[in-house]
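Before a colleague's protein record goes any further, I have to sign it off. I want your independent view on whether this chain really folds as the tokens say. The record follows directly below this note.
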Amino acid sequence: MIEKLARYRGVPVLLGVMLLAASLVVHLAWPGSWLVRSELLLHLGLIVALLGLLIGDALGG
């Protein structure tokens, strides 16, 4: 797992950005839904992107 992550260091960051974009789409499409009220995609996207930056830096990025 670490070997693949070392090879493709930018994938977790891109996944986090995609989750942030999905959060925006959900906010615009379904303004009263549970996902909008909890902001789950927003928080998950930020956590994944920041962890991806930290892990990519630690692996020699």
